[in-house]
Amino acid sequence: MELLIAVAILTFGLIGAYAAISLLGKGSESVISYSEMNSQSRKMLTYLGRDVRAADDISIADETKLMLTDLGGNSITYEYDSENETVSRTKNAEAMTILGNVTDCKFSYYTLRQASTSRPVEVKHVQLQARMKRPILSLTTSDDIVTARFMMRNHEVSN
What we know:
Largest sheet: 5 strands, antiparallel
Structural class: alpha+beta
Protein name: Prepilin-type N-terminal cleavage/methylation domain-containing protein
Distance between the termini: 89 Å
């Protein structure tokens, strides 16, 4: 009888230990996921900010695609692919995926006077809003990205 009680107590103790370890594992995976998403978004902001500030011209300005030309004549394109959930950067036909697990992404464009526009000839500021989501075990972690409005310093505008 005492052996049966000891086994029952040990079983409850092992179940509690397993639950605690499982919870710690989920928390650890979630922190790692946030860290990776944060690293990707910082990389994206670095590239986008540098490219927009150095851009001389803009040829495509829609919600999912931005095409710039820098002072050296290099073509730089940022494009959101909703099917593959990625944002890519292409410079002179050399493409790289810069963000993954992107469930929503939108480029916004503004004039010199901060009015919203979609006409490339009027664009002076560019802003990006995106949402990244990753399933981690039974959880989903997400990260929202909203950039500052990057000014196209070298782009002459019509307004």
